[in-house]
Amino acid sequence: MTNKHFLWEISKNPVPYPYALSRMQDIAQKIRSQQAEERVWLLEHPPLYTAGTSAKPADLFNPHHYPTYDAGRGGQWTYHGPGQRIAYVMMDLQKSHGQVPARDLRAYVHALENWIIRTLAEFGLKGECREGRVGVWVIDPQSGQEEKIAAIGVRVSRWVSWHGIAINLHPDMADFDGIVPCGIREFGVTSFQKLGLPVTFAQLDAALAKNWTAVFGESPSAFTPLQDE
Asked: What is the pTM of this model?
C-alpha cells in the first residue's frame, strides 16, 4: 500500500500500555501484508515502567508501585507517564525512507535521533548523541551536566518497526527515580519544563511534524484523532 502522505495519528487521552502494544503489533502485521498504512502515533501513557530485553531487576525500585510491563523492545528500564510525548513509529523498513536506506536498522535509529535533535533545535535546545548511550542528551545550563531529554526504543518484526521515541515535556521528574533510566547511573534526566521552556504538546507535535519530512522524506498527514480504548 502506498500513500502520498505518511499517516499521523494522535490520542488525546492517556493510552493503557497493553492496548498500545496490542495495537502496534496488529498494525505492524497489517503493514507487512499491505493491509494498513505506515504511521506515527502520538500519545501519552499513564504512569508506568517498561522493561526492555536488557533490563535488570536491580534497576527497578518503583516506590509508588506503578504497573510494570515487558515491552519486548531493545534497551533497559524506561518510565512513561503524563507530560511525556510518545511517538510510536510503524514503518516498512524494507523500503527506503529519506535518510534511511532499505533494510538498514542502524540508519533508522540514527534517523530517529536526528529527528529528535532537529525538533529540539526548534526550541533553542542543542540535542546530542553519545557513543554507548541510547537517546538524546542536552547540557543543563545551570549545572553544566549532561542529562537525557529523549529516549529511543525500537522493535522490528519482519522489517516493520514499532515502538519509537519518548520526549520529556513536563512529566513528574520524581517518577524517574523509580528506576535506573536505561541502566545509566552516572547521568540524570531532564525535561523542557526543567530547562525553563514552557512548551505545549501542540507546539512540540508541530515541530515533530515539521522535521519529519527532512529526515524521512514523506510529508505528514493531518493529525488524525483516535478514540482510545
From this structure: 0.95
Binding-site residues for substrate, please? 73-80, 151-153, 164-166
E-assigned strand segments in the chain: 5-11, 39-43, 48-51, 68-70, 77-80, 84-90, 128-130, 133-139, 146-157, 160-168, 188-189, 219-226
Query: Which structural domain range is residue 202 located in?
Result: 5-226
Tens-place pLDDT, residues 134-158 = 899 999 998 899 999 999 999 999 9
pLDDT of res. 182? 66
Mean local confidence (pLDDT), 45-72: 94
C-alpha cell of 56?
535488570
Neighbours of 138 (CB within 10 A): 21
Cell of 172: 513528574
DSSP labels, 22-57: HHHHHHHHHHHTTSS--EEEEE---SEEEE-TT--G
Tally of domains within the chain: 1
Note if 182 is an active site residue.
yes
Q: What is the CATH number of the domain that holds 116?
A: 3.30.930.10
Catalytic residue among 182, 195, 199, 204: 182
Q: pLDDT tens digits, residue range 93-113?
A: 999 999 999 999 999 999 999
Q: Which residues are annotated as a binding site?
A: 73-80, 151-153, 164-166
Instruction: Provide CB contacts within 8 A for 4, sequence distance 6+.
Output: 219
* Rounded-to-integer distance, Cα 91 and Cα 154, Å: 11
